[in-house]
Amino acid sequence: MSDVIDRPLLEEEKTAPTRLRIVDCDVHPSLRSTDDLNEFLPKRWQQHLKEFGSHLRTPYLFTTPYPRSSPLIARRDAWPPTGGPPGSDLAFMQKQHLDPLDVEFGILQVLDLFIFSQQNLEFGAAIQRAINDWQLAFWSHRDPRLKASILIGQDGVDLAIAEIERCARIGEYIQINVSPRANEPLGRRRYWPIYERAEALDLPLGIHVGGYGGHAPTGGGWPSYYVEEHQSNAHTIAAQLASLVIEGVPERFPKLKIVFIEGGFGWIASAVWRMDQHFERFRSEVPHLKRKPSEYVRENFWFTTQPIDEPDEARHLRALIEWVGIDRLLFSSDYPHWDFDDPRFAFKAPLTEAERRKIFSTNARAVYKF
Amino acid sequence: MARHIVASTSEIPPGGNKVVDVAGRDIVVFHVNGEFFALLNRCPHEGAPLEKAACVARLTSPEPGVYERSRVGEMLRCPWHGWEFDMRNGQSWFDPKRVRVRSYPVAVARGDELQKGPYVAETFPVHVEDSYVIVEV
Ligand code: FES
């Protein structure tokens, strides 16, 4: 079977067969500038932001450490004509993304200010709170398709719990986002109170890959190239998946839903097979686990699709999808970043209409209860 | 092929481009170093608008540590995933499906042929007549 595209798709192919309204689980809004936060940030922290800025575990401030293929890692066509960074203009986002791609719901994923990596936990909590309020005021209240997440810094567990409770009372948030690279692996006991609240509130836990946690993103140290670093996103979350499963988070919180965002899914089968195999051999080390790792993965975890691996043959992608499970995958575009996936053309695996519907819409609707 | 007058040459500054609708097709005309090139305004990968592509040079390396730029401004880098296309013929030079070391002797194979990708962006003949840019479709 050949899946090489040697010509642009024709107009009629874009719309046929049935247009599916999609749920996009990874849309990145941006601040126009940090001034957008002023109305939500107490004077004391506004002043701190101006005078001292972020205190991170890496030396990089307000920028990515190198241009990473494209300025602000964005599509070149996503810079709003009105100025400001990509993702900062709602009207432009509607016109370029939400309307033409028929996005029924778009889940906002905020990365500004390296929000998860703040070392000053009080300052971190203040900007997380401001950004949580900003998501409603600037985005979801202006376009009800857009859904906000509760951003917390999980290293300040008590502050995080307070913010979860505050936002849960507001009642408009659809998940709790935790850091992909906190101080310790995500399965650690110190973070359990957060998972307990998430389970009790029935809010999925979102883990969006990326950022700088201060640790090298691979077990082998710091990468030299962007292409190498990009590859390491998969290792990092494979390690987090293992930590959560093996340290027993889904065993202790069986109703907790965990969504890995922007990690792709090509690596999952191998990671899960290996965990299962080792579980059989080393069961006595982890008596707190009552079931095989794969069973937890199939019940408690979901994965967004982007970046989709593009094997030579579409049937191989199909096989990967089957191994992960059609019901585990949630479509995501990563708009407006440079590796954005267009839902009309990105998914080159042969899928039935019913399977498409699950991946592009109904799985996410079930997880997030839209 | 019909001839369509799409612009006066002064309308498209060097390094710039103009999107035109020719016979119902969205075509983008680039001006590079006094030459004009026309391509369908859709990347063959996922359909990004090529009008937003970066016009870059061809970067080659005869040996590790030595880099050469040539044909400055004639290569298009797609605004989304960065695949590169030759403006002259639409040939892709980026092939994410075969990024592996080939096993036959590199010394006898031409490097530029080895690197060509299987994708081709659709191009159209362009002429300049009396300061008008004409695209054949
Ligand atoms: S759409 Fe052009 S490289 Fe992907």
UniProtKB/TrEMBL annotation, chain A:
SUPFAM superfamilies: Metallo-dependent hydrolases. Pfam families: Amidohydro_2 (PF04909). Gene3D superfamilies: Metal-dependent hydrolases. Keywords: Lyase. It comes from the Bacteria. InterPro entries: ACMSD, Amidohydro-rel, Metal_Hydrolase. This is Amidohydrolase. It comes from Bradyrhizobium xenonodulans.
Automatic annotation (TrEMBL), chain B:
The keyword Iron-sulfur applies. It comes from Bradyrhizobium xenonodulans. Residues 4-115 form the Rieske domain. This is Rieske (2Fe-2S) protein. Keywords: 2Fe-2S, Iron, Iron-sulfur, Metal-binding. The lineage of its organism: Bacteria, Pseudomonadati, Pseudomonadota, Alphaproteobacteria, Hyphomicrobiales. The keyword Transport does not apply.
